[in-house]
Design a protein that fits this description.
37 helices; 39 strands; seven-stranded mixed beta sheet; alpha/beta; 1066 residues
């Protein structure tokens, strides 16, 4: 059937900000869908609140609304744009829930908007646990014994039938939010109460525990003629009990017999038909009892999912693109598979002749109070994928892609830890469970002992034991004892040069030189979705140690762009955005682009973004091999965050040309002493600072500087281990518990600028001229990490003359530093003076946001400058001024990590960001807050408790809030600061002052909003229960005084006065 002609315009709902459970895989799927539908003549309207995405670039859709993704906003946009259809399956759980809201409220029917891809009934059948269970029973398929609870009374009744342990899953939540496994009655009550609070439908599914069973996923695509294909089977290495997003997974499934595979395949097709997914991609999850083969259905997602992105990258099959086209009437046999150059139709099931391994990336070090054990609630912040000819090669390549200091199955047990600790690590999984499996084999545990402790399938345990046995053969050998065939056998199993060097106790460079002398190099194979059954010219490649090389080297001018590796806090999708912009710019200039990256969630790893994609670890060994093979003009390192920058020294030593800003400039900016001396000729002060190499030196430095101080290790990303210190006790705690300082790892101690305004400035420089991309003002005062601070563009409280002087100085810094490309500077303004906090001669996380604000891609301009173009040649001699206000607001994972204090500080904790736009700062800020999933209350009781330095601002803020209809409730100390004013205040006890206190008032729903600022470790600790209670009971709060003023300004503007404009109209 040809495409539908009755539909002219389609609304695509994005997934909003990056959160745990919903990352940039939906940027990849949304971008694919927009392109495919536009190429087929449809007008595409896109709504998404995340500015760090490629999909929100103005070229991707016809009308792009960077607005909050909720039904209220979408209703306004539907009224304006009058789309014929809405596609809800490309925006993850958020897109699905919002589309369902629109349908349930009658908004789609009122405006004659048809839901395509999945209808309301199909979404309900899949997402409503009770309906899904009923559908499975009709098909004769088993689901876990379970019951549905809408209250604690229901939950206790189900417990009597099912017993413990049991699995609790709230309906319509993301990444298992609010769920978990209960082993005792206390846990049962806690998880059920939390889950009922977080489920939008107040519904829980309580399942019998299948902990220890094997888990599989099937990626299925169906068209309206009932053609169905399995794109890929995925097997979880971890048994049931770990969320699939947190599990190490392998594709294709390794331990299924053909009969078992066919049983799952048939069941998947039946499920899609019964649930009512007429067209598009879906994901079905199964559990299998390893004892008897009993198969049960866990759940299905009637949409493109996290696993769809993995399956797409694993096979090369463009699931999102195909799903979008099926939604408008095409059938699978009519669509061509791009990766085989159209030689096969999309109805041809992908076949792969390699193994793909995904390993999740965690950031538990950012949240030390949280439980780092893995359960049914997702906790990982990113993932890597690697491809190899066998599981061991693929697994070890994935390990070295992780960027966590591990290059293989290194020992992770501490010297003082015995078999008890090992048993605990195997039986209660954490992020390094397979490393502990290897450790158990090293310690001589039997195969059955290991299996009984961890329940990981014996096939995988055999693979790990074999790697450990291989490692043992190296102990006590010299490098020269490894002949060519022995070294090659290690490389075929995925051993990195670094791991071999570690086992031989020699430098990695020595192993690399020896391997090169023996002429042992990888070859590159194609990902072609057909196991080389048909000719393919697609340049989607992976390395392996075999004979035939399928990568053809061209004679074109070519450049390597290094990606940013796995998403993590501090380095997210913003850097992938910049890498994609670089690839697009180089293509415009006729230069061949070679992309190297290891993250399956990203747009940069889509095979048609660059001329060649190498899906490889971004470490010296693998990058050097690609450069040796391709012989490019040079490498671009400034777009991928710290990941590629860390390789700069290695490139220098090995004669590899780094394009753009010279390495010496990067070193000047990163080395504190060199930078201090460099800055002496400019009109910038620097906060007084010292460098300490011992704890004693640190104490002397603090005595000289005086409190408060900010302390941090040198060369950090995302403010890792950075802390604001107010007292000797705080300092002692930091030095003993946070870090080990030494000559190699010195501590930077800096006088903290209290009450300063912080600015972020992005600059593009061609070495001769510099262009200011924009100046952003942080809404939070100095002391909050720039990635966690909301910021406004243009600045809302810095004078024009000040800004003019600042821009002039910053341009001079960029030129003097020989920047070629992008530079970011962070400045504090205090008492009319400029203080330089830091300069980064690379892309910053504000580049995508700023590019959306000014309608010009700064990363693209920088890429063309790297190629040798000048700003004059690009006709960019004047700064682009904004036409409205925009606010970038961070999004935090605090609701995933119980017991974590949701307070902001110098260490970054946010996972993503949203953007709000408006004619005033108040409107932009209000939209950003709503985009982040919060709602500012319009009245009621506001609790105010602020630190001493903020008390001078209180009268002004409280008057604004009273005029807006709020009543003020304060602690005694804060109320005292309002004495002598005409502000009415009701006092309330702090938690330590007796009952009833502020937390009681929060629990009694007497508080509508909280403004709580603190300083010092003790005061912060004492007030943590206020912030945590507010978070758990959905009370809106801010932890900065400037946040309080921004809230007041937003309320003064009023939601009823908001307007909605597409990017293309500004």
């Amino acid at each position: 059937m040809p495409k539908r002609e009755d539909i002219k315009s389609i609304l695509i709902v994005g997934s909003g900000p990056i959160v745990i459970g919903q990352a940039c895989e939906f940027d990849y799927s949304g971008t694919q869908a927009c392109k495919a539908l536009r190429d087929n003549g449809y007008r595409v309207i896109l709504v998404n609140s995340n500015p760090a995405t490629i999909m929100t670039d103005p070229e991707i859709a016809d009308a792009t609304y960077i607005e909050p993704v909720n039904w209220q906003t979408l209703e306004k946009i539907i009224e304006q744009e009058k789309p014929d259809a809405i596609l809800p399956t490309m925006g993850g759980q958020t897109g699905l829930n919002v589309s369902l809201d629109l349908a349930t409220r009658g908004i789609l029917e009122k405006h004659s908007v048809e839901m395509i891809g999945a209808n309301k009934e199909a979404i309900d059948n899949a997402e409503d646990r009770e309906k899904f269970d009923k559908c499975m029973k009709e098909l004769g398929l088993e689901t876990p014994r379970s019951g549905f609870a809408h209250s604690m009374e229901d939950a206790w009744e189900i417990y009597k039938e099912i017993g413990l342990p049991c699995v609790i899953r709230p309906s319509f939540t993301l990444g298992g939010t609010g769920g978990g496994i209960a082993y005792n009655l206390k846990e049962f009550e806690e998880i059920c109460m939390n889950g009922l609070k977080l489920s939008p439908t107040k519904e829980l599914l309580i399942d019998e525990s299948l902990v220890g069973w094997k888990e599989f996923e099937m990626e299925v695509v169906r068209d309206k003629n009932d053609n169905c294909i399995i794109v890929c089977s995925i097997e979880n290495v971890d048994p049931m009990g770990v969320h699939t997003g947190d599990s190490i997974t392998v594709a294709p499934a390794q331990t299924l017999t053909d009969k078992e595979y066919q049983e799952m395949r048939d069941a998947s097709f039946k499920i899609l038909r019964r649930i009512g997914v007429e067209t598009g991609g879906s994901n079905v999850q199964f559990a299998q009892n390893p004892e008897n083969g009993r198969l049960v259905v866990i759940e299905m997602n009637p949409r493109v999912s996290r696993s769809s992105a993995l399956a797409s990258k694993a096979t090369g099959f463009p699931i999102a693109k195909v799903a979008a086209l099926l939604a408008v009437g095409y059938t699978l046999d009519e669509l061509k598979n791009d990766i085989t150059d159209g030689k096969t139709p999309a109805s041809f099931e992908p076949t792969i002749d390699y193994v793909v391994t995904k390993i999740p990336r965690f950031n538990f070090e950012k949240f030390p109070e949280t439980d780092s054990r893995l359960t049914t609630q997702m906790k990982s912040v990113g993932e890597v994928m690697a491809i190899g000819r066998n599981f061991q090669e693929s697994f070890q390549k994935a390990i070295r892609s992780m960027e966590n200091g591990l290059f293989g199955l290194s020992s992770v047990l501490k010297d003082n830890e015995g078999n008890g600790a090992l048993k605990l690590e195997l039986s209660t999984p954490g992020e390094k469970r397979l490393w502990y499996v290897a450790e158990a084999f090293r310690r001589g545990w039997s195969f059955d002992e290991v299996f009984d402790s961890c329940k990981i399938d014996k096939w995988f345990l055999h693979q790990i034991r074999e790697l450990v046995e291989y490692e043992n053969t190296l102990l006590g050998l010299d490098l020269v004892d490894l002949d060519k065939s022995k070294l090659l056998s290690f490389k075929k199993k995925g051993f990195s040069d670094a791991r071999i060097a570690d086992l031989l106790n020699i430098p990695e460079e020595q192993v690399r030189k020896y391997r090169y002398d023996l002429e042992i190099h990888p070859v590159y194979k194609r990902v072609d979705s057909c196991a080389a059954e048909f000719d393919s010219t697609t340049n989607y490649l992976y390395s392996t140690y075999e004979q035939e090389n399928e990568s053809v080297v061209s004679k074109n001018k070519k450049i390597v762009v290094l990606g940013s590796g796995p998403n993590r806090i501090g380095q997210g999708i913003e850097f992938d955005y910049c890498c994609v912009q670089a690839a697009l710019a180089f293509r415009e200039e006729g230069v061949e682009t070679i992309m190297i990256n290891s993250n399956p969630e990203t747009v940069s790893t889509d095979f048609d973004v660059s001329d060649k994609l190498y899906f490889e670890p971004i470490v010296a060994e693998d990058v050097f091999e690609i450069i040796r093979f391709e012989n490019p003009e040079g490498v671009v390192v400034q777009f991928g965050g710290q990941t590629p920058l860390k390789l700069t020294d290695d490139f220098e030593k090995n004669g590899i040309k780094v394009l753009g800003t010279p390495s010496s400039s990067i070193d000047t900016a990163e080395n504190r002493e060199k930078f201090k001396s460099f800055l002496s000729e400019f009109n910038f002060l620097q906060p007084e600072n010292r460098i300490a190499q011992t704890s004693e030196e640190a104490k002397i430095a603090v005595d000289e500087l005086g409190y408060p101080v900010i302390v941090r290790p040198s060369y950090v990303l995302g403010g890792r281990a950075m802390e604001l210190i107010y007292t000797d006790k705080d300092l002692r705690n930091y030095l003993t518990s946070m870090i080990d300082i030494s000559a190699d790892n010195p501590l930077l101690i800096e006088k903290f600028l209290d009450d300063a305004v912080e600015l972020d400035i992005d600059v593009v420089c061609d070495g001769e001229d510099a262009l200011i991309g924009g100046v952003l003002q942080h809404i939070e005062e100095a002391g909050i990490h720039s990635g966690d601070s909301s910021c406004s563009f243009p600045p809302y409280s810095v004078g024009d003359s000040q800004l003019h002087a600042l821009k002039k100085e910053i341009k001079a810094v960029a030129k003097k530093l020989d920047v070629v490309g992008l530079m970011n500077a962070q400045i504090a303004v205090k008492d009319g003076k400029f203080y330089m906090i830091e300069v980064n001669p690379r892309a910053s996380r504000t580049i995508p946001f700023l590019s959306k604000c000014i309608g010009t891609s700064l990363a693209k301009i920088a890429s063309k400058i790297i190629l040798g173009k000048t700003l004059k040649e690009l006709k960019l001699d004047a700064e682009i001024m904004p036409t409205n206000y925009a606010v970038k607001a961070p999004v935090f994972p605090f609701n995933k990590f119980r017991k974590v204090d949701p307070i902001l500080g110098p260490e970054m904790k946010s996972t993503g960001e949203v953007m709000g736009q408006g004619d005033s700062f108040g409107e932009a800020f209000g939209k950003a807050v709503r985009g982040a999933g919060e709602e500012i209350p319009k009245g009621g009781n506001v609790f105010v408790s602020v630190k001493d330095t903020d008390k001078k601002h209180l009268p002004d803020l409280c008057k604004k809030l009273i005029n807006l209809g709020f009543k003020i409730i304060a602690t005694k100390g804060t109320a005292k600061a309002l004495e002598g004013t005409d502000i009415k205040v009701k006092t309330i006890n702090k938690v330590l002052e007796g009952r009833p206190h502020i937390v009681d008032a929060i629990l009694n729903k007497e508080i509508n909003m909280i403004i709580n600022t603190t300083e010092g470790r003790q005061a912060t600790k004492d007030s943590a229960s206020i912030r945590r209670s507010a978070l758990e009971h959905s009370v809106f709060f801010t932890t900065t005084i400037s946040g309080g003023f921004a809230i007041a300004e937003s309320l003064e503007k009023g939601v009823e006065n908001w307007t909605y404009k597409p990017l293309q109209s500004s």
